[in-house]
Structure to design on (422 residues):
């Protein structure tokens, strides 16, 4: 029997329930497909409360484990959302898998997303089928000449657009996405970041256009001055200025006046946030690695047997390690599939490593990562001693301190299956 969801129990969309219904943001989307001139994303920060900040990034499976712990400690949570720290649809595989898992394991929770709108359109139908009820899209301008002052670039697939063409593309995608979402009955809120001297005189034009598209709610948010960004010296609008802008925009759309500018890992009630309190749960779940009895081993890409120091595509073979209860033991060495063959190479590798819960590499591309994860093998990008990495996997130690140069390598390699010289 299909669970009927009460869409009124979303505290961001219904101020009347903000004291009794809570939200949890699942930070599974680190990458972004646009660069806003006010944005500075931070992945390991506990000191700021604003969008784009999180203390950890989770995999979809880790997000489910985290959600279980959160609900045990805060049963008033009614909404699970994905709001970064990048954009959900710059990370579509992680985003959609998280939504599927949450819907399967927590059928009574509302599901929501916050996005810039650039990449959501291909997923709108599945989002509706999975019961996503609320989507927020940030629309800062409906005039590309204003938008070009706000966005440095927009990445559409492998093409990076800049200036006016970036702003034009983003606006087109946003309008298409909102139209599609509303056609499927999804509740849509639009956020507009108010940037004095840039778009503060443009707010009514945005609100008017959004109302014409059937948007349900409008949220004027003051820009948060961030160091090391082009808008670092732009002053934050005063409360009086924001109040006046909201009053004017209310002629077109209902206003959200209780926004708390949540972090990408926010959890709790809007007026009783528990992000700090549950920080330990988040970081411990970020270290979880699949560990069932059918996968007792860990594979390692290494040159000499002491360090994790090979890219996945560079490794001619993998050492296979186990924890035998008395320490870590090298079991054997397995040959990797030959270079070439496209994605089939990674499916073959997954078969070779099918009894491994994790594979430790210096870096890997997105294609092999997706295939290995689909087969239940967790790729971990590590730079350091094998024994320390094995302790992290088997005993729950901190993986983060072992992450090094690998993060940059992975972004430069698409994982084509041809091998790698980096």
């Amino acid at each position: 029997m299909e669970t009927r969801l009460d869409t009124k129990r979303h505290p961001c969309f219904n101020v009347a329930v903000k004291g009794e219904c809570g939200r949890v943001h699942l930070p599974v989307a680190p990458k972004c497909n646009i660069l806003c001139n006010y944005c500075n994303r931070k992945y390991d920060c506990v000191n700021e409360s604003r969008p784009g900040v999180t203390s950890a990034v989770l995999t979809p499976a880790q997000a489910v484990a985290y959600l279980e712990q959160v609900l045990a400690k805060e049963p008033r949570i009614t909404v699970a959302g994905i709001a970064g720290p990048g954009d959900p649809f710059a990370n579509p595989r992680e985003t959609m898998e998280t939504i599927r898992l949450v819907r399967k394991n927590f059928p009574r929770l509302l599901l929501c997303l916050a996005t810039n709108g650039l990449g959501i359109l291909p997923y709108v139908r599945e989002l509706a089928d999975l019961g996503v009820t609320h989507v927020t899209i940030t629309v800062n301008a409906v005039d590309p000449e204003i938008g070009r002052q706000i966005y440095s670039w927009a990445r559409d697939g492998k093409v990076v657009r800049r200036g006016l063409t970036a702003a034009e593309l983003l606006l087109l995608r946003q309008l298409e996405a909102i139209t599609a979402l509303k056609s499927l009955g999804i509740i849509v809120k639009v956020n507009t970041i108010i940037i004095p001297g840039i778009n503060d005189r443009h707010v009514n034009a945005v609100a008017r256009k959004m109302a014409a598209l059937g948007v349900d709610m409008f949220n004027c948010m003051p820009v948060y001055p961030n160091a090391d960004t082009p808008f670092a010296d732009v002053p934050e609008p005063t409360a009086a200025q924001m109040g006046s802008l909201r009053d004017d925009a209310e002629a077109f759309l209902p206003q959200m006046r209780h926004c708390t500018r949540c972090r990408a890992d926010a959890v709790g009630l809007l007026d009783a946030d528990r992000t700090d309190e549950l920080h330990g749960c988040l970081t411990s779940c970020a270290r979880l690695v699949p560990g069932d009895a059918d996968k007792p081993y860990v594979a390692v890409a290494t040159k000499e047997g002491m360090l994790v120091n090979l890219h996945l595509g560079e490794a001619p073979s993998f050492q296979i390690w186990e924890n035998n209860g008395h320490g870590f033991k090298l079991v054997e060495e397995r040959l990797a599939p030959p270079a070439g063959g496209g994605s089939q190479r990674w499916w073959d590798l997954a078969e070779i490593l099918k009894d491994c819960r994790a594979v430790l590499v210096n870096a890997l591309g997105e294609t092999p990562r997706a295939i290995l994860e689909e087969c239940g093998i967790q790729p971990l990008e590590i730079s350091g001693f094998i024994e320390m990495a094995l302790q992290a996997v088997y005993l729950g130690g901190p993986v983060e301190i072992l992450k090094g140069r690998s993060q940059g390598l992975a972004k430069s390699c698409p994982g084509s299956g041809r091998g790698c010289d980096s």
